[in-house]
Design a protein that fits this description.
With 359 residues, this protein is an alpha+beta fold. The chain has 14 helices and 12 strands. The chain starts with 8 loop residues before the first strand and ends with a helix. Its EC number is 2.7.7.7.
């Protein structure tokens, strides 16, 4: 029997996507430290340019901290419609790749094992994709090339910005050994801190442990950590992954205690979610309202309907009812959010929801 061909996976990741779009569209912002987000007291950085990252400014950082780290930081409000439009251009460039797994607006996995671009190597395929992205959008992208998803994603970070890096099968395990586990995709800050407390700093430290060790300390994730420490990842690419939820949230300029103000915020978030539903044709059955109190404690309330929400008014009504369930207000509320989940397409027959159970 013939051996299966070695997989060739490319991970394409745009460089500082939101910030780069803003710098492309406004030459006065080029070369300057830039944050996409609202710079008011309660704002959060959605994206940071590379000039801002030099000062330690990162996405999800509170605006006040970002401004302290970089006094010259320029805040630009996000333009999500523009980002989505550019994203469609980028994903259209991927279209003649046989297997694509979109991850977000600005990144995707491509399986180029079966070469439909008539290019001799995965390296040249990635280079051609990056060239077209630059030519058609004016933006740069970085690429990682390897034999599995884990290594391809790690590799795309290795030559950022505007570069690419390949991890061949004969170097995968050794390359992982040299890296800090904190850089591993799927190892967040909490897990990284726990690994450090267990004496695991690098991939080599993790690889030295038996399977029983990570399983004991990290439960079901233990086998995943055991495999990636050896450069192994058998996950297939999953094309056209269904979106499981859509949500919107806002942080208020001041802590709110008046029900009318709180409910007005919830209604705005419900409207944002419904606008997305209108554009995509998706309809969901479960609505969840999130509340973050003044002391940063978070609570959520959910309600699942027999059928998907059919109109804006119904979503608004149930969202407000859910936030009212947290009354009386024990302290100020700093954030509210609304999320819709358990989707189906609005044009999908209701009977199809039960077809799998009936078969």
């Amino acid at each position: 029997m013939e051996a299966s061909p070695i997989r060739k996976v490319v991970h394409i990741d745009m460089d500082a996507f939101y910030a780069s779009v803003e710098q492309r569209d406004n030459p006065a912002l080029r070369g300057r430290p830039l944050a996409v987000g609202h710079g008011e007291k309660r704002g959060v950085v959605a994206a940071a340019s590379y000039e801002a990252r030099v000062f330690g400014v990162r996405s999800a950082m509170p605006s006040t901290i970002a401004k302290r780290r970089c006094e010259e930081l320029i805040f630009v409000p996000p333009r999500f419609e523009v980002y989505r439009s550019v994203s469609r251009q980028i994903h259209a460039i991927f279209a003649d790749t046989p297997l694509i797994e979109p991850l977000s607006l600005d990144e995707a996995y491509l399986d180029v094992t079966d070469n439909l671009r008539n290019l001799p190597t995965a390296w040249l395929t990635a280079k051609e994709i990056r060239r077209r992205i630059l030519e058609e959008t004016g933006l740069t992208a970085s690429a990682g090339i390897s034999y599995n998803k884990f290594l391809a994603k790690l590799a795309s970070d290795h030559r950022k910005p505007n570069g690419q890096f390949a991890v061949a099968p004969d170097m995968g395990a050794a390359w992982v050994e040299e890296l800090p586990v904190a850089k591993f995709h799927g190892v967040g800050p909490v897990t990284a801190a726990k690994m450090t407390s267990l004496g695991i700093i690098t991939g080599a430290d993790l690889r030295a442990k038996s399977l029983a060790f990570p399983t004991q300390h990290f439960g079901r994730s233990g086998s995943w950590y055991y495999d990636i420490a050896r450069g192994e990842d058998d996950r297939p690419l999953v094309p056209n992954r269904e979106r499981k939820s859509s949500g919107s949230e806002t942080t208020f300029d001041r802590d709110l205690t008046e029900p009318a103000d709180i409910e007005a915020g919830v209604l705005r978030m419900a409207d944002d979610v419904w606008d997305w539903c209108e554009k995509t044709g998706a309809r969901g059955k479960t609505v969840t309202v999130k509340v973050k109190w003044q002391d940063f404690e978070i609570c959520t309330r959910s309600r699942t309907m027999p059928n998907p929400f059919a109109d804006r008014g119904s979503l608004r009504e149930h969202s407000v009812a859910l936030v009212r369930s947290v009354y009386p207000i024990r302290t100020g509320i700093r954030l509210v959010g609304v999320t819709l989940s358990q989707f189906r397409r609005h044009d999908e027959p209701e009977a199809s929801l039960f077809s799998q159970a009936a078969s």
